[in-house]
Each structure stands twice: as C-alpha cells, then as structure tokens.
From TrEMBL:
PROSITE patterns: ILVD_EDD_1 (PS00886), ILVD_EDD_2 (PS00887). It comes from Agrobacterium bohemicum. GO terms for molecular function: 4 iron, 4 sulfur cluster binding; metal ion binding; phosphogluconate dehydratase activity. Its cofactor is [4Fe-4S] cluster. The keyword Cell wall biogenesis/degradation does not apply. Binds 1 [4Fe-4S] cluster. The lineage of its organism: Bacteria, Pseudomonadati, Pseudomonadota, Alphaproteobacteria, Hyphomicrobiales. It catalyses: 6-phospho-D-gluconate = 2-dehydro-3-deoxy-6-phospho-D-gluconate + H2O. HAMAP family: Edd. Pathway: Carbohydrate metabolism; Entner-Doudoroff pathway. This is Phosphogluconate dehydratase.
Length: 606
C-alpha cells in the first residue's frame, strides 16, 4: 500500500530540502558510471600490481571487463566479539564468487574499536571520530579502482555508519553489507543491569561484577542488547543494504554461512556487467532514509543514530534533520520491546518474528515506503520473510508470520506498546537536544529540579559515592561535545543515576555528550547543541538553576530570564588532559573541524 500521508509529507520536505545537494551527488555518480568497468582504464603496470598475487586463471579474468570483481572491505579483528567471525569470511566470499563466475579480493581493512572496552576510558574520546576515520580507510581501499561492486563486513557502533558513508561516497558501485549476527543469549540483560547497580552501591565486589559481565558477553557475535550495533543491523536490512532476513542469524551456523554465500553471488549479479545494475547511491534515496528512521522508532533503537543517520544521509546528498526524526517519532508506533526497552534480547526478537514481521507490520499501515530499491530488487515487501535452509543447504524464504510468536517482545501494528516512537527532539533556551523515551516510564517524562554541574563523568561518580546526590536534581555534564573531547559516551553514569531514581528521587541528565546506544530508564537530554566549548547556553547554567525537561511537549528549559542568562559569562574548563594519550593527539584535527551534533557531528560536513 502507499505510504501514510504523514510519512509522505515528511519525505517530500526532505526531498525538497535535499534537492540542490542530491542533484549534484547524482550527477557525479552518473558521470562515474559512464566511465564503465574501471579496470579498463588502468595502465598495464597498474593492473599488474592489482592482480600480482592472483592465480594465472584469475589474472586472465581480471585482465578483461567481462567478469565482476568484488572488493571486500573488512572490519575484522579478533578482540571484538561481533567482528571475530569475519576472520573466515574472505575465503568464503572468494569461493562463492568463483562458483558464480566472479572474483573477490580484500580491498582493505578498517579500524574497529569496541565501545564496550573503552567506556569511561580515554579511548572512548576516539569512538565517534572513528566513524569518519573508517569511512576514509574504506575509501582508500576502494580507490584502487579494481572493483565492480563492494561487500562490507562490519557490525558495531561507528563501524557500519562509517562503512555506509564510504559506500555512498563510492555510490557508483553496488554495495552489499554482510553481517555476522548476534552471540547466543547469555545472562539476561536485566540481571546484568541489576548487578551493575549493586556494584555502584558497593553491595557486590569486582569479582561478582566481572562474573556477571562475562556471562553476558561470552562468545562470538554482537552483544545481545538493543544498542547501536544491533540498531545498525536493523537499519541495514530495512534500508535495503542486507539480504532479506540476514540481520540476526547467529554466527558460525549453516544458515549464517549460506547467507554470506548468497550475498556474494547477489553482489556479482547487480554489477554493471549484469542486467540488474544497482549502484548504491541510486538505490539509497530519501525514501530509504525515512524507512531507516521509521525502523529506529518502531524498535526503540539507539540514540547514536540521531548523529549517524544524518551523516550517512548527507553522504548521499540527503539532508535529514532532528526535526524530521522527531516528527517521524510522533507518527510511528513502538512495536518492539528489547532490552533496555524490555527484558528480551535480540535473539528473542528474531525468534518472535524478527525483521520480517516488523517490516510486514509497518507496511500494513503505510509507515514505510514499499517502492524502494534494495540489493534484493525492487520493493520492501520482499523483506517480509523468515529465512531458512532448503534441502540443499541454500537459503530459502517463507512468508513472515501474521501473528507475533511472542507479543510481549514484538507487537502488531494494531496493538503497539506505545503509539509513538522512541526518540524525540527537545528545544528551548538551552538549544537543541535528543531524548530516548521508549524505556523511560511515563511518570518520568517531565522532570523539574535544580541543576548540579559537572565537567566530567568521574566527578559525578565521586559525588554519588560520597553520598552527595541523595536528592532531586538534574545532572548537567558539560564539555563533553565533539569539539571539546570527541563526544564520548557517558554510559557509566547510568548505574548511579539509576540507583538514585530507584531510591525515589527525581533525576535527569543534560549533556552535550552522548549516552550509550543502550541508554534506558533515566531521562537524558543528550547531544545538546550548541555545545559548552562553543559557549552554548549549557555553559551558562549554574548550580541550583531550575531545569525543566518535558519530553511530552519536547522542551528543555533553564528557568532563568533571557536577560540574566545572556548576561552570564560562559563557564570554561581545562581540556588539556583530553588532548593527549591513547591516540587523542592524533585526532586534534578532527576536534578542530568537526560539525555540530545536529549536523551529524561529522568532519565531512558542517
């Protein structure tokens, strides 16, 4: 069916706003396409370097223009559980490509850091910037001009957005994203959270905490909570970069391997040598981006994508705003309850019907555009499936169920968990911010309390341990924006604030930094812009000022007069210790050139 008129209206305004940028982007893309198979423009010396290690048969194939060559961009490393399975993918992809009459080469590797390892550590200040570094690294790999299509191996937080920016920067090439899937379920996420809060209160020790964490993160695959990594996988499927049904199949299983082989063959089928040429930059358009935002709202996805989706869209000449994201949230119902928005993990989500059921429900009432292109073909309807193996070990697909296998995890569009989505924009005399409300109880959607100012998260932790925070308050944690220190996640604030909230206090967070993609039950106005280092209003808040956060009306206010606020001198902070150590000195150019949060916090566009 046609998209809901409200969805169409928001899409139309994105199209209109984007027109000047999108037209230039598509003109450049089409110019690249007219140059044909790019190995043909390489000199003999260029080409000899490009296939020096290939077999004589492969050299003969690559010397011509008739057979497709896939460039593999891999984020493999064996420290990240989500990326460790990619170790064997290049060999599998090369073999599948050969069976399909093509070639595949690893074009390059990109860095892949783990936010779970760096939370609260200096390395977290590189995390957001790693997205743009990943895009550049992938661009270097593809710049060799040897390839007819690209396959991207990546899963986690900044890695997929960085790879998408690269794929759209090389938008004349078809691109397929091949996931690795989530780890099997371990210690339930709510139990892990309980132990974290007990540790924050000093009621259990490090040994008990480490045991709980190790039972939660226990094997290969993505962490099973619904944070940024799994939101990435949802996005790649609903936007059409994944093969249907491939997002949440566990690693090292026959179905996972069959999906990888199938994606390889499909990548060869959509090159310019075939009849289904699907350049990534033509495939992804404003409708695809809106579908991604709708999926994020319907699943209660990661706040980080209020940054990443804007940066990803801009790479294709599409101008998405926080207002668009917030307005879509007012339209789209919440259909999934996955931790931290519920007790289930992504394996339970997949077992309940997963992406196929979700997309079927969204299509039913026109919340997503069906008339889009995907790597699988035309139309999102093809993604309303459940994947299985056929008798020959190949991927088979059956229609997704009409009824959820577990209505407590995945609801129908007629009986949603709530009528609106999970993310909203807040505006007021402090600027603009984002809040995730899908896991916040309704009675906490409005918080009005005095401010307590902190210039780093450790200061808040110390105040909590010293018993100074047993009262109603709004924690203002500033100088955490992209220009100040790379906009680290402040996920370690969740346990102490959660403890205080459970004690009955009204608490909230206001920050120009980020929370984890798994941020949950505490009201948090994050990504505040202008940031404190730019003398934004957040830098003028003083201890004791009353702050009103209203997620219902979408407002964030400090209750002082405009005259008084403007007269105050902005606070300053000594940021010198953020400028060196753990590689931070290497990213000084990023801190100097990064754009604002509501523009995607990107070094590519301000």
């Amino acid at each position: 069916m046609a998209a809901d008129p409200r969805i169409q209206a928001i899409t139309a305004r994105i199209v209109e706003r984007s027109k000047p940028y999108r037209e230039i982007y598509l003109e450049r893309l089409r110019l690249q396409v007219t140059k044909g198979v790019h190995r043909s423009v390489l000199s003999c010396a260029n080409l000899a370097h490009g296939f020096a290690v290939c077999s004589p048969a492969d050299k003969d194939i690559l010397a011509g223009d008739r057979v497709g060559n896939l460039g593999i961009i891999t984020a493999y490393n064996d420290m990240l559980s989500a990326h460790q399975p990619f170790e064997v993918y290049p060999a599998m992809i090369r073999d599948a490509a050969k069976q399909a009459g093509g070639i595949a080469q690893v074009a390059g590797a990109v860095p892949a850091m783990c936010d779970g390892v760096t939370q609260g550590q200096p390395g977290m200040e590189l995390s957001l910037f790693s997205r743009d570094a990943i895009a550049m690294a992938a661009g270097i790999g593809l710049s060799h001009n040897m390839f007819d299509a690209a396959v991207f191996l990546g899963v986690c937080d900044k890695i997929v957005p960085g790879l998408v920016i690269a794929a759209l920067s090389f938008g004349h090439l078809p691109s397929i994203f091949i996931p690795a899937g989530p780890m099997t379920s371990g210690l339930p996420n709510d139990e892990k959270s309980r132990i974290r809060q007990l540790y924050a209160e000093g009621k259990v020790g490090r040994a008990e905490l480490l045991e709980a964490e190790s039972k939660s993160y226990h094997g290969p695959g993505t962490c099973t909570f619904y944070g940024t990594a799994n939101s990435n996988q949802m996005l790649m499927e609903i936007m059409g970069f994944h093969m249907p049904g491939s997002s949440f199949i566990n690693p090292n299983t026959p179905l996972r391997d069959a999906m990888t082989r199938e994606a390889t063959k499909r990548a060869l089928a959509i090159t310019a040598q075939g009849n289904e040429f699907t350049p990534a930059g033509e495939m992804i358009d404003e409708r695809s981006v809106v579908n991604g935002v709708v999926g994020l709202h319907a699943t209660g996805g990661s706040t980080n994508h209020t940054l990443h989706l804007i940066a990803m869209a801009r790479a294709a000449g599409i101008v998405l705003t926080w207002q668009d994201i917030s307005d879509l949230s007012d339209v789209v119902p919440l259909l999934a309850r996955v931790y931290p928005n519920g007790l289930a993990d992504v394996n339970h989500f997949h077992a309940a019907g997963g992406m196929g059921f979700l997309i079927k429900q969204l299509l039913k009432q026109g919340f997503v555009h069906d008339d889009v292109r995907t790597v699988f073909g035309h139309g999102l309807e093809a993604y309303t499936i459940e994947p299985t193996l056929d008798e020959n070990g190949a991927v088979a697909r059956t229609s997704s169920p009409e009824v959820s296998h577990d209505p407590k995890v995945l609801a129908s569009v007629e009986t949603p968990f709530q009528p609106t989505g999970g993310l909203k924009m807040l505006t007021g005399n402090l600027g603009k911010a984002v809040i995730k409300i899908s896991a916040v109880k309704p009675e906490r959607h409005i918080i009005e309390a005095p401010a307590i100012i902190f210039h780093d998260q450790q200061s808040l932790q110390t105040a909590f341990k010293e018993g100074k925070l047993n009262r109603d308050f709004v924690a203002v944690v500033r100088f955490q924006g992209p220009k100040a220190n790379g906009m680290p996640e402040l996920h370690q604030l969740t346990p102490p604030l959660g403890v205080l909230q459970d004690r009955g206090f009204k608490v909230a967070l206001v920050t120009d930094g980020r929370m984890s993609g798994a941020s949950g039950k505490v009201p948090a106005a994050i990504h505040m812009t202008p940031e404190a280092v730019d003398c934004g209003p957040i830098s003028r808040i003083q201890d004791g000022d009353i702050i009103r956060l209203d997620a219902i009306t979408g407002t964030i206010q400090v209750l002082v007069s405009a005259t008084e606020l403007a007269a105050r001198a902005p606070a300053t902070a000594d940021l010198s210790e953020n400028e060196w150590g753990m590689g931070r000195e290497l990213f000084a150019p990023f801190r100097r050139s990064v754009g604002a949060a509501d523009h995607g916090a990107s070094v590519f566009s301000n």
